[in-house]
Specification:
The complex is a heterodimer of chains A (116) and B (153). Chain A is mainly alpha-helical. Chain A is built from four helices and no strands. Chain A has a single domain, classed as Up-down Bundle (3 helical TM bundles of succinate and fumarate reductases), CATH 1.20.1300. Classes of the chains: A mainly alpha (116), B mainly alpha (153).
């Protein structure tokens, strides 16, 4: 059997996550992280947010956003360490740390979204 | 000699960080190790590393989003507590820095899109400006959707 490289899959996840996070994360950070806490804009009522978050489609979408963004970040951070610090001899350890972290957080995402 | 296999490998296969091995007939490789701070030397390098470091802040946002969802699932009191916690100066500063990095990520991503996407209409290739404009258009639509879902209700 031919040993297939995982690299193309990782690049695919990187670009899919790049698109998703570029489109959605800036507005979400601004609203959930800055504008609502500081009261620049009125935070939505609890009932309203709960109805949105509890909807299966929203949870599926949130899961997709989380997983893709995590793998995007893991891949990019891997190459940041690789180019930025020139520590290629730690390649395997860096890979385990980055993708392992993405997998662990994805599992947590599934758990949190399942619990809603 | 124990280091024989290492020195037999071609130079291009060896990481820069590896210690050089000098042999009798090959006394010195002409290869300077770049400074660890090479990315401070030029603006273009700095913006490259800024773009790459956005990855950390994307990961932080995912954690923040999941904490938000968890708070929502635990009831109204923890939903209010979440916003009280997010007003803490450390969290707030982190989120403001995150906003800067994710906007930088989005802008660089959309500007690069024409290089990654080659779209043909008939036999003509769509110009780069059309592709990046449609990406920015999608950004506006996605932002409007998020705002419509969350603001003013």
């Amino acid at each position: 059997m031919v040993k297939r490289s995982l690299e193309p899959v990782l690049w695919l996840l990187f670009s899919a996550g790049g698109v998703v996070s570029a489109l959605l994360v800036p507005s979400l950070v601004f609203l959930l992280g800055i504008a609502f806490p500081l009261g620049w804009l009125a935070a939505p009522s609890y009932e309203h947010v709960f109805r949105i978050v509890a909807h299966p489609l929203t949870r599926l979408a949130l899961f997709g956003i989380c997983v893709l963004s995590l793998f995007h970040a893991a891949h990019r951070f891997r190459f940041t360490l690789y180019d930025g610090l020139q520590i290629k001899h730690l390649n395997e350890m860096i890979g385990v740390f980055c993708y392992g972290g993405a997998i662990a957080l994805s599992v947590w995402a599934a758990y949190v979204l399942w619990q809603v | 000699m124990s280091d024989r296999p290492m020195s037999d490998r071609p130079m291009s296969d060896r990481p820069v960080s590896e210690r050089s091995i000098y042999t009798e007939y090959h006394p010195r490789w002409l290869r300077r190790r770049p400074s660890t701070y090479w990315w401070l030397e030029r603006r273009a390098y700095l913006s490259f590393i800024t773009r790459e470091l956005s990855s950390i802040f994307i990961a932080w946002f995912v954690v923040y989003l999941l904490l938000f969802v968890r708070a929502v699932s635990r009831g109204e009191a923890s939903y209010q507590e979440f916003f009280a916690w997010s007003r803490h100066p450390v969290v707030m500063v982190l989120n403001i820095v995150t906003l800067f990095f994710v906007v930088f990520h989005a802008v660089t991503w959309f500007n690069l899109a024409p290089k990654a996407m080659v779209v043909h209409v008939g036999r003509k290739r769509l110009p780069a400006s059309v592709i990046s404009a449609s990406n920015y258009g999608a950004w506006v639509v996605a932002t409007a959707l998020v705002a419509w879902l969350l603001v003013g209700s």
